[in-house]
Sequence to fold (225 residues):
Amino acid sequence: KQEVTQIPAALSVPEGENLVLNCSFTDSAIYNLQWFRQDPGKGLTSLLLIQSSQREQTSGRLNASLDKSSGRSTLYIAASQPGDSATYLCAVIKAAGNKLTFGGGTRVLVKP
Amino acid sequence: SAVISQKPSRDICQRGTSLTIQCQVDSQVTMMFWYRQQPGQSLTLIATANQGSEATYESGFVIDKFPISRPNLTFSTLTVSNMSPEDSSIYLCSVEGGYTEAFFGQGTRLTVV
Fold:
């Protein structure tokens, strides 16, 4: 059974610092890995999708890496801003049409 | 990408009643997924809804409690029946786009009193 873990559970940084969020999964037979952002009481916004054959994806200040063999992904957010404050979730999928398995999330607070 | 509209965005309901949540997608999709997020927890899949067939429920979730309809390729509903305070959660619908990228609605925040 796939298990996804996110460390740390919470993170507080001053504005301008880089953020490093970690995601690990126990079964390396994944189809892809996806990072999401969730604001309090709201739905999920897709940030980055990394296919299993890829090593990383970039979008603006966000960069996500994937090391499938070791079961790890890292989300980097450069030059953090107070608007980056949210919960970040990673999820893996085994195959098309399958369910997503989510980590517990990292709650981020960026202080002005 | 897919745009998903979910209604209602939030509701406060009396115990013993039922609430139906609607999910509308801007394109035709084969599968729609319903998730629950309990307070302070991550997301758990309730069921997968395919058009023209019965929904497939995950372990711990039953049709009598969470009936699902999927009348066409752009719409689905989830009903939370005979609610108790333990059903207070955020309920989210999701669809799968290209390369299995998942897209979510804005969620329904349910409080049962």
